[in-house]
Design a protein that fits this description.
The complex is a heterodimer of chains A (about 325) and B (about 270). Chain A has 14 helices and two strands. Chain A has a two-stranded antiparallel ribbon with strand order 1-2. In chain A, helix 2 packs across helix 11, helix 4 packs antiparallel against helix 10 and helix 11 crosses helix 12. The model of chain A has no long low-confidence stretch (mean pLDDT about 90). The chains are: A mainly alpha (about 325), B alpha/beta (about 270). Chains A and B meet through helix 8 and helix 9 of A and helix 3, helix 4 and helix 5 of B.
Chain lengths: ~325, ~270
Protein backbone atom coordinates (compact mmCIF):
# COMPACT_ATOMS: atom_id res chain seq x y z
CA UNK A 1 0.00 0.00 0.00
CA UNK A 2 2.70 2.43 1.07
CA UNK A 3 4.71 1.47 -1.99
CA UNK A 4 1.77 2.19 -4.28
CA UNK A 5 1.28 5.63 -2.73
CA UNK A 6 4.98 6.23 -3.10
CA UNK A 7 4.94 5.15 -6.75
CA UNK A 8 1.98 7.43 -7.45
CA UNK A 9 3.76 10.35 -5.79
CA UNK A 10 6.90 9.73 -7.86
CA UNK A 11 4.83 9.46 -11.02
CA UNK A 12 2.93 12.69 -10.43
CA UNK A 13 6.13 14.52 -9.56
CA UNK A 14 7.83 13.24 -12.68
CA UNK A 15 4.92 14.21 -14.89
CA UNK A 16 4.20 17.64 -13.42
CA UNK A 17 7.69 18.99 -12.82
CA UNK A 18 9.19 20.22 -16.04
CA UNK A 19 11.99 22.52 -14.94
CA UNK A 20 15.20 20.64 -15.61
CA UNK A 21 16.90 22.13 -12.56
CA UNK A 22 14.27 20.70 -10.22
CA UNK A 23 14.32 17.36 -11.99
CA UNK A 24 18.09 17.22 -11.59
CA UNK A 25 17.82 18.03 -7.89
CA UNK A 26 15.17 15.33 -7.42
CA UNK A 27 17.30 12.85 -9.31
CA UNK A 28 20.19 13.54 -6.94
CA UNK A 29 17.86 13.12 -3.98
CA UNK A 30 16.96 9.72 -5.41
CA UNK A 31 20.60 8.65 -5.70
CA UNK A 32 21.32 9.85 -2.17
CA UNK A 33 18.22 8.04 -0.91
CA UNK A 34 19.60 4.75 -2.23
CA UNK A 35 22.88 5.46 -0.45
CA UNK A 36 21.17 6.40 2.81
CA UNK A 37 18.79 3.47 2.62
CA UNK A 38 21.66 1.02 2.33
CA UNK A 39 23.60 2.54 5.19
CA UNK A 40 20.44 2.72 7.30
CA UNK A 41 20.05 -1.04 7.02
CA UNK A 42 23.58 -1.45 8.35
CA UNK A 43 23.64 1.39 10.87
CA UNK A 44 20.04 2.04 11.83
CA UNK A 45 18.87 -1.55 11.95
CA UNK A 46 21.92 -3.70 12.63
CA UNK A 47 23.74 -1.02 14.63
CA UNK A 48 27.05 -1.36 12.78
CA UNK A 49 28.70 1.88 11.76
CA UNK A 50 30.49 2.44 8.48
CA UNK A 51 32.52 5.61 7.97
CA UNK A 52 33.76 4.46 4.60
CA UNK A 53 30.61 3.93 2.61
CA UNK A 54 31.62 6.39 -0.09
CA UNK A 55 34.20 3.78 -1.11
CA UNK A 56 31.44 1.46 -2.36
CA UNK A 57 29.67 4.40 -3.98
CA UNK A 58 32.93 5.14 -5.77
CA UNK A 59 33.55 1.51 -6.58
CA UNK A 60 30.23 1.26 -8.41
CA UNK A 61 30.91 4.52 -10.24
CA UNK A 62 34.51 3.78 -11.23
CA UNK A 63 33.74 0.19 -12.21
CA UNK A 64 31.11 1.25 -14.70
CA UNK A 65 33.16 4.32 -15.69
CA UNK A 66 36.27 2.30 -16.54
CA UNK A 67 34.37 -0.47 -18.29
CA UNK A 68 32.37 1.92 -20.47
CA UNK A 69 34.74 4.86 -21.05
CA UNK A 70 37.99 2.91 -21.40
CA UNK A 71 36.92 -0.44 -22.70
CA UNK A 72 33.80 0.52 -24.58
CA UNK A 73 31.39 -1.80 -22.78
CA UNK A 74 27.69 -1.14 -22.89
CA UNK A 75 26.57 0.37 -19.57
CA UNK A 76 23.98 -2.37 -19.20
CA UNK A 77 26.72 -4.99 -19.41
CA UNK A 78 28.80 -2.96 -16.98
CA UNK A 79 26.00 -2.75 -14.40
CA UNK A 80 26.05 -6.39 -13.23
CA UNK A 81 29.86 -6.40 -13.25
CA UNK A 82 29.97 -3.20 -11.19
CA UNK A 83 27.49 -4.61 -8.69
CA UNK A 84 29.26 -7.96 -8.53
CA UNK A 85 32.59 -6.18 -8.03
CA UNK A 86 31.16 -4.13 -5.18
CA UNK A 87 29.70 -7.32 -3.74
CA UNK A 88 33.02 -9.16 -3.77
CA UNK A 89 35.04 -6.25 -2.35
CA UNK A 90 32.43 -5.62 0.35
CA UNK A 91 32.46 -9.29 1.30
CA UNK A 92 36.24 -9.42 1.53
CA UNK A 93 36.30 -6.22 3.59
CA UNK A 94 33.48 -7.41 5.83
CA UNK A 95 35.08 -10.73 6.71
CA UNK A 96 37.79 -9.31 8.95
CA UNK A 97 36.17 -5.93 9.63
CA UNK A 98 32.89 -7.00 11.18
CA UNK A 99 34.72 -8.82 13.94
CA UNK A 100 35.14 -5.26 15.21
CA UNK A 101 32.38 -3.21 16.74
CA UNK A 102 31.65 0.31 17.93
CA UNK A 103 34.48 2.84 17.57
CA UNK A 104 36.85 0.20 16.27
CA UNK A 105 34.53 -0.68 13.42
CA UNK A 106 34.17 3.05 12.73
CA UNK A 107 37.95 3.42 12.55
CA UNK A 108 38.35 0.30 10.44
CA UNK A 109 35.79 1.36 7.84
CA UNK A 110 37.25 4.86 7.87
CA UNK A 111 40.63 3.36 6.98
CA UNK A 112 39.09 1.34 4.18
CA UNK A 113 37.40 4.47 2.82
CA UNK A 114 40.75 6.26 2.77
CA UNK A 115 42.48 3.42 0.97
CA UNK A 116 39.73 3.38 -1.66
CA UNK A 117 40.01 7.14 -2.10
CA UNK A 118 43.78 6.90 -2.59
CA UNK A 119 43.35 4.11 -5.14
CA UNK A 120 40.80 6.21 -7.08
CA UNK A 121 43.23 9.13 -7.07
CA UNK A 122 46.55 7.45 -7.67
CA UNK A 123 45.75 4.71 -10.16
CA UNK A 124 45.57 7.39 -12.80
CA UNK A 125 46.11 5.17 -15.83
CA UNK A 126 42.75 3.62 -15.08
CA UNK A 127 40.83 6.21 -13.07
CA UNK A 128 42.20 9.40 -14.56
CA UNK A 129 43.55 10.39 -11.15
CA UNK A 130 42.84 13.84 -9.76
CA UNK A 131 41.64 15.20 -13.07
CA UNK A 132 38.91 12.60 -13.14
CA UNK A 133 37.48 10.08 -15.54
CA UNK A 134 35.79 11.64 -18.56
CA UNK A 135 33.72 10.27 -21.39
CA UNK A 136 31.37 8.01 -19.47
CA UNK A 137 28.51 7.43 -21.90
CA UNK A 138 24.91 8.26 -21.07
CA UNK A 139 22.47 5.42 -20.78
CA UNK A 140 20.44 4.41 -23.79
CA UNK A 141 17.66 1.90 -24.24
CA UNK A 142 17.68 0.91 -27.89
CA UNK A 143 17.78 4.26 -29.65
CA UNK A 144 16.11 6.07 -26.77
CA UNK A 145 18.49 8.15 -24.69
CA UNK A 146 18.10 8.11 -20.91
CA UNK A 147 20.59 10.88 -20.39
CA UNK A 148 19.05 13.35 -17.97
CA UNK A 149 15.80 15.10 -17.23
CA UNK A 150 12.62 13.07 -17.01
CA UNK A 151 13.86 9.69 -18.27
CA UNK A 152 16.72 9.65 -15.79
CA UNK A 153 14.42 10.87 -13.02
CA UNK A 154 12.16 7.88 -13.63
CA UNK A 155 15.08 5.48 -13.87
CA UNK A 156 16.55 6.63 -10.56
CA UNK A 157 13.25 6.74 -8.72
CA UNK A 158 12.33 3.36 -10.14
CA UNK A 159 15.49 2.05 -8.51
CA UNK A 160 14.60 3.88 -5.28
CA UNK A 161 11.20 2.22 -5.30
CA UNK A 162 12.73 -1.22 -5.79
CA UNK A 163 15.26 -0.56 -3.02
CA UNK A 164 12.41 0.58 -0.76
CA UNK A 165 10.45 -2.58 -1.39
CA UNK A 166 13.50 -4.75 -0.82
CA UNK A 167 14.38 -2.99 2.44
CA UNK A 168 10.82 -2.94 3.72
CA UNK A 169 10.41 -6.66 3.11
CA UNK A 170 13.73 -7.31 4.80
CA UNK A 171 12.86 -5.22 7.83
CA UNK A 172 9.52 -6.92 8.37
CA UNK A 173 10.97 -10.40 8.09
CA UNK A 174 12.73 -12.63 10.57
CA UNK A 175 16.00 -11.24 9.26
CA UNK A 176 14.90 -7.69 10.08
CA UNK A 177 14.03 -8.73 13.61
CA UNK A 178 17.39 -10.44 13.91
CA UNK A 179 19.19 -7.29 12.74
CA UNK A 180 17.43 -5.21 15.37
CA UNK A 181 18.27 -7.86 17.93
CA UNK A 182 21.95 -7.61 17.01
CA UNK A 183 21.68 -3.84 17.40
CA UNK A 184 20.38 -4.27 20.95
CA UNK A 185 22.71 -6.98 22.17
CA UNK A 186 24.85 -9.25 20.12
CA UNK A 187 25.15 -11.72 22.94
CA UNK A 188 21.41 -11.97 23.48
CA UNK A 189 20.93 -12.30 19.73
CA UNK A 190 23.44 -15.16 19.65
CA UNK A 191 21.61 -16.84 22.52
CA UNK A 192 18.49 -16.86 20.31
CA UNK A 193 20.43 -18.89 17.76
CA UNK A 194 21.04 -15.97 15.41
CA UNK A 195 24.28 -16.37 13.49
CA UNK A 196 25.35 -12.82 14.31
CA UNK A 197 28.66 -12.66 12.46
CA UNK A 198 27.19 -14.06 9.26
CA UNK A 199 24.20 -11.74 9.35
CA UNK A 200 26.40 -8.71 9.99
CA UNK A 201 28.53 -9.58 6.98
CA UNK A 202 25.47 -9.97 4.75
CA UNK A 203 23.86 -6.71 5.77
CA UNK A 204 27.18 -4.96 5.18
CA UNK A 205 27.40 -6.47 1.70
CA UNK A 206 23.76 -5.60 0.99
CA UNK A 207 24.28 -1.97 1.95
CA UNK A 208 27.50 -1.82 -0.07
CA UNK A 209 25.78 -3.16 -3.18
CA UNK A 210 23.08 -0.48 -2.85
CA UNK A 211 25.88 2.10 -2.63
CA UNK A 212 27.42 0.54 -5.74
CA UNK A 213 24.09 0.91 -7.56
CA UNK A 214 23.95 4.56 -6.50
CA UNK A 215 27.48 4.96 -7.87
CA UNK A 216 26.44 3.46 -11.21
CA UNK A 217 23.49 5.84 -11.47
CA UNK A 218 25.65 8.80 -10.50
CA UNK A 219 28.38 8.01 -13.03
CA UNK A 220 26.01 7.77 -15.98
CA UNK A 221 24.13 10.89 -14.92
CA UNK A 222 27.09 13.25 -14.64
CA UNK A 223 29.29 11.33 -17.17
CA UNK A 224 32.39 12.59 -15.36
CA UNK A 225 33.70 11.34 -12.02
CA UNK A 226 36.60 12.39 -9.84
CA UNK A 227 37.91 11.04 -6.52
CA UNK A 228 36.51 13.96 -4.50
CA UNK A 229 32.97 12.73 -5.05
CA UNK A 230 33.86 9.61 -3.07
CA UNK A 231 36.07 10.92 -0.28
CA UNK A 232 35.81 10.95 3.46
CA UNK A 233 33.43 13.92 3.54
CA UNK A 234 30.97 12.06 1.35
CA UNK A 235 31.04 9.08 3.73
CA UNK A 236 30.29 11.41 6.60
CA UNK A 237 27.52 12.99 4.59
CA UNK A 238 25.82 9.63 4.08
CA UNK A 239 26.06 8.92 7.80
CA UNK A 240 24.55 12.36 8.46
CA UNK A 241 21.66 11.62 6.12
CA UNK A 242 20.86 8.49 8.08
CA UNK A 243 21.14 10.18 11.47
CA UNK A 244 19.22 13.32 10.47
CA UNK A 245 16.48 11.38 8.73
CA UNK A 246 16.13 8.83 11.49
CA UNK A 247 17.99 5.64 12.32
CA UNK A 248 16.08 2.44 11.68
CA UNK A 249 13.52 4.27 9.57
CA UNK A 250 13.13 3.55 5.88
CA UNK A 251 11.30 6.82 5.25
CA UNK A 252 13.93 8.59 7.31
CA UNK A 253 16.49 7.73 4.64
CA UNK A 254 14.41 9.56 2.06
CA UNK A 255 13.91 12.52 4.37
CA UNK A 256 17.57 12.70 5.37
CA UNK A 257 18.73 12.45 1.78
CA UNK A 258 16.27 15.16 0.73
CA UNK A 259 17.29 17.54 3.52
CA UNK A 260 21.00 17.09 2.92
CA UNK A 261 20.63 17.50 -0.83
CA UNK A 262 18.30 20.49 -0.79
CA UNK A 263 19.83 22.41 2.13
CA UNK A 264 23.24 23.20 0.59
CA UNK A 265 21.41 24.23 -2.54
CA UNK A 266 19.11 26.67 -0.79
CA UNK A 267 21.83 27.98 1.48
CA UNK A 268 23.64 29.56 -1.46
CA UNK A 269 21.81 32.77 -0.56
CA UNK A 270 24.06 33.02 2.50
CA UNK A 271 27.10 33.11 0.18
CA UNK A 272 30.19 33.18 2.43
CA UNK A 273 28.30 31.99 5.49
CA UNK A 274 26.73 29.03 3.71
CA UNK A 275 28.67 26.33 5.55
CA UNK A 276 28.18 28.05 8.90
CA UNK A 277 24.41 28.10 8.50
CA UNK A 278 24.48 24.51 7.25
CA UNK A 279 26.40 23.41 10.32
CA UNK A 280 24.08 25.33 12.63
CA UNK A 281 21.02 23.69 11.12
CA UNK A 282 22.53 20.22 11.56
CA UNK A 283 23.40 21.06 15.18
CA UNK A 284 19.91 22.35 15.85
CA UNK A 285 18.32 19.20 14.42
CA UNK A 286 20.54 16.98 16.58
CA UNK A 287 19.81 19.01 19.72
CA UNK A 288 16.05 19.26 19.29
CA UNK A 289 15.22 16.00 17.48
CA UNK A 290 18.05 13.62 18.33
CA UNK A 291 15.91 10.67 17.21
CA UNK A 292 15.91 12.05 13.68
CA UNK A 293 13.40 14.03 11.69
CA UNK A 294 11.01 11.16 10.95
CA UNK A 295 10.58 10.25 14.62
CA UNK A 296 10.47 13.95 15.55
CA UNK A 297 7.69 14.71 13.09
CA UNK A 298 5.70 11.62 14.12
CA UNK A 299 6.10 12.48 17.82
CA UNK A 300 4.97 16.05 17.29
CA UNK A 301 1.95 14.80 15.38
CA UNK A 302 1.11 12.28 18.14
CA UNK A 303 1.49 14.90 20.84
CA UNK A 304 -0.74 17.43 19.08
CA UNK A 305 -3.35 14.73 18.58
CA UNK A 306 -3.22 13.67 22.20
CA UNK A 307 -3.41 17.29 23.27
CA UNK A 308 -6.51 17.84 21.17
CA UNK A 309 -7.95 14.69 22.68
CA UNK A 310 -7.32 15.63 26.33
CA UNK A 311 -8.28 19.30 26.10
CA UNK A 312 -11.04 19.69 28.72
CA UNK A 313 -14.47 20.15 27.33
CA UNK A 314 -15.72 23.60 28.49
CA UNK A 315 -19.32 22.45 28.64
CA UNK A 316 -18.46 19.90 31.32
CA UNK A 317 -16.47 22.14 33.63
CA UNK B 1 5.60 -27.81 44.15
CA UNK B 2 6.58 -28.99 47.56
CA UNK B 3 9.72 -30.84 48.49
CA UNK B 4 7.98 -34.16 48.76
CA UNK B 5 6.61 -34.06 45.23
CA UNK B 6 10.05 -33.48 43.81
CA UNK B 7 11.29 -36.43 45.77
CA UNK B 8 8.69 -38.92 44.63
CA UNK B 9 9.08 -37.97 41.01
CA UNK B 10 12.78 -38.36 41.25
CA UNK B 11 12.60 -41.72 42.93
CA UNK B 12 9.94 -43.16 40.69
CA UNK B 13 11.15 -42.58 37.21
CA UNK B 14 14.35 -40.76 36.58
CA UNK B 15 17.01 -43.06 37.90
CA UNK B 16 16.97 -45.61 35.13
CA UNK B 17 16.94 -43.28 32.16
CA UNK B 18 20.00 -42.26 30.20
CA UNK B 19 21.27 -38.72 30.55
CA UNK B 20 20.03 -36.03 28.24
CA UNK B 21 22.93 -33.78 29.11
CA UNK B 22 26.18 -35.21 30.39
CA UNK B 23 29.16 -33.10 31.33
CA UNK B 24 32.48 -34.69 32.22
CA UNK B 25 35.50 -32.97 33.70
CA UNK B 26 34.67 -29.57 32.24
CA UNK B 27 37.23 -26.78 32.49
CA UNK B 28 36.33 -23.29 31.27
CA UNK B 29 38.67 -20.38 30.76
CA UNK B 30 38.40 -16.62 30.49
CA UNK B 31 41.69 -15.93 28.78
CA UNK B 32 44.12 -17.72 31.09
CA UNK B 33 41.91 -17.62 34.15
CA UNK B 34 40.20 -20.90 34.86
CA UNK B 35 36.61 -20.23 35.92
CA UNK B 36 35.46 -23.83 36.07
CA UNK B 37 37.77 -26.56 37.18
CA UNK B 38 36.75 -30.08 36.40
CA UNK B 39 32.97 -30.11 36.78
CA UNK B 40 30.85 -33.16 35.98
CA UNK B 41 27.08 -33.19 35.90
CA UNK B 42 24.22 -35.02 34.30
CA UNK B 43 20.63 -34.15 33.56
CA UNK B 44 18.14 -36.87 32.69
CA UNK B 45 15.06 -36.30 30.55
CA UNK B 46 12.20 -34.75 32.49
CA UNK B 47 14.33 -33.74 35.44
CA UNK B 48 14.50 -30.35 37.09
CA UNK B 49 18.05 -29.82 38.28
CA UNK B 50 19.09 -26.95 40.52
CA UNK B 51 22.62 -25.66 40.38
CA UNK B 52 23.37 -23.49 43.36
CA UNK B 53 26.39 -21.61 44.55
CA UNK B 54 27.63 -18.19 45.59
CA UNK B 55 28.54 -15.28 43.34
CA UNK B 56 31.46 -16.14 41.12
CA UNK B 57 31.21 -19.87 41.70
CA UNK B 58 30.98 -20.43 37.94
CA UNK B 59 27.26 -21.13 37.58
CA UNK B 60 26.62 -18.67 34.76
CA UNK B 61 29.88 -19.66 33.10
CA UNK B 62 28.64 -23.24 33.01
CA UNK B 63 25.33 -22.30 31.38
CA UNK B 64 27.00 -20.01 28.87
CA UNK B 65 29.41 -22.80 27.98
CA UNK B 66 26.59 -25.27 27.41
CA UNK B 67 24.78 -22.78 25.18
CA UNK B 68 27.89 -22.09 23.13
CA UNK B 69 28.34 -18.46 24.14
CA UNK B 70 31.71 -19.31 25.66
CA UNK B 71 33.94 -21.39 23.46
CA UNK B 72 37.11 -21.65 25.50
CA UNK B 73 36.70 -24.94 27.31
CA UNK B 74 38.05 -28.45 27.69
CA UNK B 75 36.36 -31.65 28.69
CA UNK B 76 33.25 -33.26 27.37
CA UNK B 77 29.68 -32.06 26.98
CA UNK B 78 27.28 -34.58 25.49
CA UNK B 79 23.73 -33.65 24.60
CA UNK B 80 21.61 -36.64 23.63
CA UNK B 81 24.86 -38.56 23.20
CA UNK B 82 26.21 -36.03 20.74
CA UNK B 83 29.29 -33.94 21.64
CA UNK B 84 28.75 -30.16 21.67
CA UNK B 85 32.43 -29.28 21.25
CA UNK B 86 32.96 -26.76 18.48
CA UNK B 87 29.27 -25.96 18.04
CA UNK B 88 28.33 -22.31 18.09
CA UNK B 89 25.08 -20.98 19.61
CA UNK B 90 22.97 -21.40 16.43
CA UNK B 91 23.85 -25.08 16.26
CA UNK B 92 23.15 -25.55 19.93
CA UNK B 93 19.75 -23.86 19.74
CA UNK B 94 19.08 -26.02 16.69
CA UNK B 95 19.74 -29.16 18.75
CA UNK B 96 17.18 -28.13 21.33
CA UNK B 97 18.97 -26.25 24.10
CA UNK B 98 17.53 -22.86 24.97
CA UNK B 99 18.93 -20.35 27.46
CA UNK B 100 17.11 -17.80 29.59
CA UNK B 101 20.11 -15.55 30.15
CA UNK B 102 21.14 -13.83 33.34
CA UNK B 103 19.55 -10.40 33.59
CA UNK B 104 16.93 -11.51 31.02
CA UNK B 105 18.70 -9.87 28.08
CA UNK B 106 15.49 -8.92 26.34
CA UNK B 107 15.45 -6.63 23.34
CA UNK B 108 13.98 -3.57 25.11
CA UNK B 109 12.96 -1.37 22.16
CA UNK B 110 11.18 -4.24 20.42
CA UNK B 111 7.64 -5.32 21.14
CA UNK B 112 6.76 -8.28 23.35
CA UNK B 113 5.58 -10.13 20.26
CA UNK B 114 8.80 -9.47 18.34
CA UNK B 115 10.81 -10.67 21.32
CA UNK B 116 8.84 -13.89 21.38
CA UNK B 117 9.22 -14.35 17.64
CA UNK B 118 12.97 -13.88 17.96
CA UNK B 119 12.99 -16.86 20.26
CA UNK B 120 11.72 -18.92 17.34
CA UNK B 121 14.34 -17.52 14.94
CA UNK B 122 15.81 -20.89 13.94
CA UNK B 123 12.35 -22.33 13.44
CA UNK B 124 11.35 -19.47 11.13
CA UNK B 125 14.40 -20.43 9.09
CA UNK B 126 12.99 -23.93 8.87
CA UNK B 127 9.63 -22.43 7.85
CA UNK B 128 7.62 -23.97 10.67
CA UNK B 129 5.17 -21.09 10.64
CA UNK B 130 2.02 -22.90 11.73
CA UNK B 131 3.76 -24.73 14.56
CA UNK B 132 5.26 -21.44 15.72
CA UNK B 133 1.82 -19.82 15.81
CA UNK B 134 0.53 -22.67 17.96
CA UNK B 135 3.45 -22.40 20.36
CA UNK B 136 2.99 -18.65 20.54
CA UNK B 137 -0.57 -19.26 21.61
CA UNK B 138 0.64 -21.72 24.25
CA UNK B 139 3.20 -19.30 25.64
CA UNK B 140 0.60 -16.55 25.81
CA UNK B 141 -1.68 -18.92 27.70
CA UNK B 142 1.10 -19.72 30.11
CA UNK B 143 1.72 -15.98 30.66
CA UNK B 144 -1.59 -14.20 30.04
CA UNK B 145 -0.08 -10.88 31.06
CA UNK B 146 2.13 -11.02 27.97
CA UNK B 147 -0.92 -11.22 25.76
CA UNK B 148 -2.22 -7.97 27.24
CA UNK B 149 1.11 -6.33 26.54
CA UNK B 150 1.76 -7.89 23.14
CA UNK B 151 2.35 -4.61 21.33
CA UNK B 152 4.19 -2.94 24.19
CA UNK B 153 7.95 -2.43 24.14
CA UNK B 154 9.70 -5.08 26.20
CA UNK B 155 11.69 -2.40 28.05
CA UNK B 156 8.51 -0.94 29.52
CA UNK B 157 7.47 -4.17 31.28
CA UNK B 158 7.90 -4.69 35.01
CA UNK B 159 10.65 -6.96 36.30
CA UNK B 160 8.38 -9.96 36.74
CA UNK B 161 6.81 -9.51 33.33
CA UNK B 162 10.25 -9.22 31.77
CA UNK B 163 11.29 -12.50 33.34
CA UNK B 164 8.14 -14.15 32.04
CA UNK B 165 8.92 -12.78 28.60
CA UNK B 166 12.47 -14.10 28.80
CA UNK B 167 11.18 -17.57 29.67
CA UNK B 168 8.47 -17.37 27.03
CA UNK B 169 11.03 -16.33 24.45
CA UNK B 170 13.23 -19.31 25.29
CA UNK B 171 10.22 -21.64 25.06
CA UNK B 172 9.47 -20.34 21.57
CA UNK B 173 12.55 -22.22 20.38
CA UNK B 174 10.73 -25.41 21.43
CA UNK B 175 13.69 -26.63 23.46
CA UNK B 176 14.27 -30.10 24.82
CA UNK B 177 16.43 -28.66 27.57
CA UNK B 178 15.73 -25.30 29.15
CA UNK B 179 18.60 -23.52 30.88
CA UNK B 180 17.69 -20.73 33.28
CA UNK B 181 20.23 -18.33 34.72
CA UNK B 182 19.00 -16.71 37.94
CA UNK B 183 15.38 -16.18 36.97
CA UNK B 184 14.56 -14.90 40.48
CA UNK B 185 17.14 -12.13 40.38
CA UNK B 186 15.74 -8.79 41.51
CA UNK B 187 12.19 -10.05 41.90
CA UNK B 188 9.85 -9.67 44.87
CA UNK B 189 9.25 -12.96 46.80
CA UNK B 190 5.77 -13.52 45.42
CA UNK B 191 7.07 -13.11 41.88
CA UNK B 192 9.83 -15.59 42.60
CA UNK B 193 7.14 -18.07 43.67
CA UNK B 194 5.18 -17.35 40.52
CA UNK B 195 8.18 -17.94 38.24
CA UNK B 196 9.12 -21.13 40.09
CA UNK B 197 5.52 -22.36 39.86
CA UNK B 198 5.76 -21.93 36.12
CA UNK B 199 8.93 -24.02 36.07
CA UNK B 200 7.19 -26.78 38.00
CA UNK B 201 4.31 -26.59 35.54
CA UNK B 202 6.72 -26.87 32.61
CA UNK B 203 8.42 -29.82 34.23
CA UNK B 204 5.07 -31.55 34.67
CA UNK B 205 4.53 -31.10 30.96
CA UNK B 206 7.74 -33.01 30.39
CA UNK B 207 10.31 -30.23 30.02
CA UNK B 208 13.84 -30.89 31.19
CA UNK B 209 15.21 -27.94 33.15
CA UNK B 210 18.61 -26.90 34.45
CA UNK B 211 18.11 -24.04 36.87
CA UNK B 212 20.93 -21.88 38.16
CA UNK B 213 20.02 -19.95 41.29
CA UNK B 214 21.47 -17.95 44.11
CA UNK B 215 18.16 -18.32 45.85
CA UNK B 216 19.18 -21.81 46.92
CA UNK B 217 16.23 -22.62 49.11
CA UNK B 218 13.60 -21.82 46.53
CA UNK B 219 15.49 -23.68 43.83
CA UNK B 220 16.12 -26.83 45.88
CA UNK B 221 12.49 -26.97 46.96
CA UNK B 222 11.30 -27.57 43.43
CA UNK B 223 14.31 -29.52 42.16
CA UNK B 224 14.59 -33.27 41.72
CA UNK B 225 18.29 -33.08 42.25
CA UNK B 226 20.73 -30.35 43.01
CA UNK B 227 24.40 -29.58 42.56
CA UNK B 228 26.45 -27.18 44.64
CA UNK B 229 29.20 -25.32 42.84
CA UNK B 230 32.00 -23.59 44.74
CA UNK B 231 34.99 -21.83 43.20
CA UNK B 232 34.57 -23.62 39.91
CA UNK B 233 34.24 -27.07 41.49
CA UNK B 234 31.26 -29.27 42.22
CA UNK B 235 31.33 -29.83 45.96
CA UNK B 236 28.04 -31.57 46.57
CA UNK B 237 25.25 -33.27 44.73
CA UNK B 238 22.09 -35.02 45.77
CA UNK B 239 18.34 -35.00 45.96
CA UNK B 240 16.80 -31.58 46.35
CA UNK B 241 15.50 -32.35 49.80
CA UNK B 242 18.72 -34.00 50.97
CA UNK B 243 20.64 -30.91 50.02
CA UNK B 244 18.10 -28.73 51.78
CA UNK B 245 18.78 -30.71 54.93
CA UNK B 246 22.55 -30.85 54.51
CA UNK B 247 24.40 -29.07 57.30
CA UNK B 248 27.02 -27.49 55.05
CA UNK B 249 24.47 -26.28 52.54
CA UNK B 250 22.36 -24.88 55.33
CA UNK B 251 25.26 -23.00 56.79
CA UNK B 252 26.58 -21.69 53.50
CA UNK B 253 23.49 -20.97 51.44
CA UNK B 254 20.31 -21.19 53.43
CA UNK B 255 20.93 -19.13 56.53
CA UNK B 256 20.16 -20.25 60.04
CA UNK B 257 16.45 -19.50 59.96
CA UNK B 258 15.95 -22.29 57.46
CA UNK B 259 14.14 -24.61 59.88
CA UNK B 260 11.55 -22.03 60.85
CA UNK B 261 11.03 -21.27 57.20
CA UNK B 262 10.36 -24.87 56.33
CA UNK B 263 8.03 -25.38 59.24
CA UNK B 264 6.16 -22.26 58.27
CA UNK B 265 5.64 -23.58 54.76
CA UNK B 266 4.54 -27.13 55.52
Amino acid sequence: MKQILFAVAVLTMGLTISQSYHLQLLTFIGIHTILALGLNMLMGYAGQISLGHAAFYGLGAYATGILTAHWGWSPWAALPVALAGTFVVAFLVALPMLKLSGYYLGMGTLGFGMIAFIVFREWSSLTGGDSGLVGIPSLTVGTFSVSSGKPYFFLVWGCVLLAFIACERLVDSRVGRALRAIHDSEKAAAAMGIDTSRLKIWVFVFSAVLAGLAGFLYAHLVTFISPNSFGFLVSIRIVTMVVIGGMASIWGSLLGAAVLTILPDWLHVFTDYEMVVYGLILMAIMIFVPQGLTRGILDTYERSRRKAFTTPDPSQS
Amino acid sequence: MTVSMGKTLHESNTCERASMLRIRNLKCYYGRIRAINGVSLSVRPGELIALIGANGAGKSTLLQTISGLLQNWEGEILFQKEPLKGLRPPGIVERGISLVPEGRMLFPPMTVLDNLKLGAYRRYRRREHTAIEEDLEEVLQLFPVLREREKQQAGTLSGGEQQMLAIGRALMAKPRLLLLDEPSMGLAPFLVRLILDVLVQLKEQGMTILLVEQNARAALQIADRGYVLENGKMVLEGNGCDLLADQDVKRAYLGKDYREFCEGRS
